[in-house]
């Protein structure tokens, strides 16, 4: 994307205006931010590898000055995660423990894929006897594989802290780089980058979702798309660059790539109406570039995507209750729980948990955005951004819109889309994630235009006069930004002590009691116990297989293959879960013992393990003894070998 840098209300230096500008904007209106520069300027920029920002800078800024925004973003990210960095092996994120467990498991899997030559797209270490399709479970291979040395040396807990920090700082930095490239205005780019990287939605997603808060590839996707069809760099090279970015993003998060493609399409519709001739001249080369992207990315992703959608363990669509996770309209003018102005009690009624507060912008920002749209209504970019934001706000409400927790009687466009392929795998509230970069870009454009207006007035001041008015106006702009963004300032993410992993798994003790190809059943099975069982497995670097876990997989008994969280529990596993949850009294009969043998044989279970510190340890141990004989207390775990039972 290139930017027209002429002053508001002034003609370009040579007195010319493009034909598109003449027919799109009334005479004397402010020049809009354009997707296209003057041809000769654009060709010169592309010839220099698109390296310099749109605004001409006669002298290169000092290195420290150029690095300052990136260092500031990194420092702010570390500050927000300070408690986690205080001891990655001792603490976990309070608001979303379960997803941190899952990502640490994935990071360990990625490290093993390199160390042992394992298939990074599928794992039989979890969800025995079916295994797990990792392409359908956010495998984050673009992070897990290159960071494997960090996992080997320091553990998955440290790698998780790294990618979470990188998610916030990297997203802000990428948007800063791209916006500075497009606008040629460092302050405007810094404001936009800061918002895009640390907005409430991003901080919320950083709590256990580094694949969603880590949007550092997407700004470059946007930049690459907006450069399509411009003269200078060959169309094939532009297509190859975009293909590389697409492939990289697929192995970070596919859902966000899909949403970005939708957002670009929505943006281009109103922009095409405003600038038809500009876009029309770019269509032939743009289509060639997109064809190159489709061909190259299609070849590179053919097998991974085939495995995801048709390979072992594939599923189609999310559970019905997940498809009802829409954003609450009332959330848009409220504040997130991790914002300084947020109230967790209010937020809890408007969002599906601490990690899905995607739409909390606060009423001051909404008022300022309305003022910006009115002020810059002649700007094609601002109009297109506003349309995109409104469309995704409406879509984010899902198929059952709510306002302040109550059903809201409006037409729900998402209800027309949520059953379509790909759309049926989108969590509706995450459509609001598109609104964050839209708002960040609008803020950046507004800051640039405001600064241009102030400089224009300053230029009219007589030489030698003190420009008090310009200083006051600038300070007023800073004050408005502070009042709008101040309440959204994020607070550090809270942590809690990491759950205890018994010595049985942290030493080599487990190797003497779990067969090499054995399958471990953590007793009792269930949602929370499965998370602990995954942590035990991660502590051994996945040195054995396990039944159950926390993941998305198809119900093996459902021909439609709709995804579900976790496994199907056979009767014996369900019985053990009921004993733990309800204190149910069970007398082990020959029929129960025979059923246990059948269930353990069907799932491949060879070993039962029960934490000695479990609050129902006596009841559960009594049942397991009756099923498999006297257990052994080893390193804080009761252990049973059930192979004699299944062999009988």
Structural notes for this entry:
48% of the residues are buried. The model is unreliable at 1-58 (pLDDT under 50). Helix 14 runs antiparallel to helix 15. By secondary structure, this protein is an alpha+beta fold. The protein has helices at 19-24, 39-47, 63-80, 82-85, 97-116, 141-144, 148-154, 156-183, 186-198, 200-206, 210-213, 218-227, 235-250, 254-274, 276-310, 320-323, 344-348, 363-375, 380-396, 435-459, 468-485, 503-506, 527-539, 571-582, 590-603, 617-628, 643-647; strands at residues 91-93, 122-123, 132-133, 402-403, 406-407, 495-497, 519-522, 545-546, 552-554, 563-565, 607-611, 632-634, 637-641. Strands 8-7-11-13-12 form a 5-stranded mixed beta sheet. A two-stranded antiparallel sheet has the order 1-6.
Q: What's the main sheet like?
A: 5 strands, mixed
Number of strands: 13
| Number of H/I helices | 27
DSSP strand content: 5-15%
Helix content: 40-55%
The Cα radius of gyration reads 28 Å
The spatial strand order of the largest sheet comes to 8-7-11-13-12
Spatial shape: elongated
Mean pLDDT: 88
What distance separates the N and C termini?
Answer: 71 Å
Regions with little confidence, pLDDT below 50 for 5+ residues:
1-58
Pairing-aware structural class of the strands and helices?
alpha+beta
Lay out the secondary structure:
Elements: H1 19-24, H2 39-47, H3 63-80, H4 82-85, E1 91-93, H5 97-116, E2 122-123, E3 132-133, H6 141-144, H7 148-154, H8 156-183, H9 186-198, H10 200-206, H11 210-213, H12 218-227, H13 235-250, H14 254-274, H15 276-310, H16 320-323, H17 344-348, H18 363-375, H19 380-396, E4 402-403, E5 406-407, H20 435-459, H21 468-485, E6 495-497, H22 503-506, E7 519-522, H23 527-539, E8 545-546, E9 552-554, E10 563-565, H24 571-582, H25 590-603, E11 607-611, H26 617-628, E12 632-634, E13 637-641, H27 643-647
Parallel strand pairs: 7-8, 7-11
Antiparallel strand pairs: 1-6, 2-3, 4-5, 9-10, 11-13, 12-13
Helix pairs in contact: 3-8, 5-7, 5-8, 5-23, 7-8, 8-9, 8-12, 9-20, 12-13, 13-15, 14-15, 14-19, 19-20, 20-21
